[in-house]
Amino acid sequence: MDKKMPEKTLAMLLAKIAEYWDAILAVGAGLIGGGLAYLTEVKNGTRKWDVCAFALAIASAGFFAFVTYMICVELFTWSPGLSVAASGMIAHLGAEKVKQLLTQFFTNKLG
């Protein structure tokens, strides 16, 4: 029986992480941005503290940041660093506010 050595598995894992480092960083920025946005709403009194809502806000912001990162890199051909920054800002704004801005932008363009 040929067992893989843990060192080889760890090296392969680190190589994959290095390959997708920018995307991982974008998701991390999204998680932080979404968490900060939720905590700001709690501090301002517009929301009550709820652990489940906080977890949902962080998870959705992380996903939204990843999608934003991929759009910026693939569609707009921005640099990875700029795409990570845009992803963090978009996640901090929140999906609802971004949807409002996009709806307003396209309504003004088409209307």
Question: How would you describe what is shown here?
Answer:
The structure is a single chain. The chain is an all-alpha fold and 111 residues long. It is 84% helix and 0% strand. It has helices at 6-19, 21-44, 51-75, 80-93, 95-110. α2 crosses α3 and α3 runs antiparallel to α4. The longest helix is centred in the middle third of the chain and has 25 residues, at 51-75. It is flat and about 60 Å long. The termini are far apart. The mean pLDDT is 86.
The biggest sheet amounts to: none
Mean pLDDT: 86
How far apart are the termini? 69 Å
Label the overall shape.
flat
Structural class of the secondary structure composition? mainly alpha
Q: Which residue ranges are poorly predicted, with pLDDT under 50 across at least 5 consecutive positions?
A: none
Order of helices and strands: HHHHH
What's the total helix number? 5
Strand residue percentage: under 5%
Short recap of the structure:
By secondary structure, the protein is mostly helical.
Summarize the SSE layout with pairings.
Blueprint lengths: L5 H14 L1 H24 L6 H25 L4 H14 L1 H16 L1
Helix pairs in contact: 2-3, 2-4, 3-4
List the defining traits of the structure above.
111 residues, mainly alpha, single chain
